[in-house]
Amino acid sequence: MKFLSSLLVCFFTLPWLAGAQAGDPISFEDLARQAAANLDSNPDLAAGLFKRALALQPTWAEGWLYLGGTLYRLQHFSEALQAFDTGISMSPPMGTSFAFRGLCQFELKHFDRALEDFQKGEALGLGPNHQFESVARQHAALLYIHSSLFDQALGQLQPLSNYADNSPGVLEAAGLCALTLSAWPDQLSPQKRALVDLAGKAQWAAMSRQPVEADAAYRELLTTYPHEPGVHYSHGLYLMETDQDAALAEFGEELKVNPDHWPTMIVSASLENKRGESARAMQMAQSASKLAPAAYQWLCHAEIGRAYLATHSSQKAISEFQAALQQAPDNPQMHFYLEQAYRLAGNDAEAQKEKAEFIRLKKQIDPATVAAK
Question: At what angle do helices 168-178 and 130-146 cross, to 10 degrees?
Answer without folding.
Answer: 30
